[in-house]
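User: two proteins, same treatment. go.

Assistant:
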Amino acid sequence: MHCRIPIVALGASLLGCQSVTVTPRSIREAAAPPEVRERVLATWREAIDLLNEFLASPFNLSLPRGRFELRDEEGMLFVTDGGARPIEVRCSTLGDLVRWAGGKAASLRRGFVVARIGSGKGDRAVENSLFTKPDGEAQPPRKVASLIAHETSHLVHGNGFWRNCGYLCEALFLWRCTTSSIEDRPRATSVEIGLFARSKGLSQDFEEALEPGEAEALLATYVLDPFLHVEHGPFPELASPRQGPPELERLHAHCALARAWFDPVLRRDGSPERLQDLAALRGAFETETLRCRLLCLESDPDGAKLEERRSRMAGILKEALDLVQTERLGKTLLGEREDPIPADHRSGAPAPENR
């Protein structure tokens, strides 16, 4: 999200603006060719299916377990144990201003706004930035699901309007834009669903899907790095019941992701020397995990020591990933590809999309 987006959103939200609520019914009644209406509805339904699969997957660390529902009159609902939350989508003048400012959407109190795409004469229910690219081509379901997940994360972790106000204050007084704390949890959601898509071979940014476990290892590396501007869960305030101290809950989730990669790699055939090195790194990772767990269990954990341990764990994972990359393990571990993870993505997850 660009610095001027919250300024635009805050100003425009105080003014009246024309808008269309995007629902399955409004799409079917839109002044657009039948094939366009059917394509938009099919894309939205497929995006909902992807979102629900993501929510139930180990990649989801930032949103509560639940499901999205698409209803004819109401549009989207996010249903969790705490109830059903409307995720209202509006295509409005405010959304047009957000797009002009460089963004894709902006969260408000009950949902988010998107922009009209095209000549400005099309029906907002179908020709909008949720379903259509700036060049007029159709958005793939993965992109639609990613945008919905990001904006839902804003709503789950705080009222959209007031979070925009907080974003504005940070931009004006602390000069924070891309590193705004308001974006930390939604940014984490974007990273998580991006790696989920890569694990299924749905990402357009890479030609092939990651091997089983690779995406989990990248995500575990990412969430353990204390210097990145993301905040992954699981978040105790969204979980019921609580299982322990917040830091310990997060540690369990992150370490489970790392083990999901380490274990199958160590069971496969490859260079004995490299496998021995990987086994040593696995042992070092478990040692740091134990030390970190003991710190979490203290009545008043030392934050600096905790971040130091987490940083070491992230470093061990990065070293293990690099070891597999450079050795290739005789193309046994990572398949027949020349370069399964591009060089500029080897030490972390792909950059999240801007709003």
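Protein 2:
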Amino acid sequence: MGRMFSALDRLRASEAPGADIAIAESISVAMHRWDLARRKNDGDAEKTVREQLAELTQHWLDTSVPTPDTLVLQTDAILELDDDLG
């Protein structure tokens, strides 16, 4: 789990966006909770934390990874090329 702290420290040092740091902190806390539940053999708590981790991961992917909806492409060059062919 020490690597999580190291990753958080690197994010803060690199002046990453606050939202990225907040998600990383939430994931770190959830990982610690999952580890504790696993060590206690608390299957219900483990399942709950795994579900929370899945939600946090999805949130991070939704906000951090560009999707076709968020990509901006310059189309002028394509239009000019088509005009030259005509």
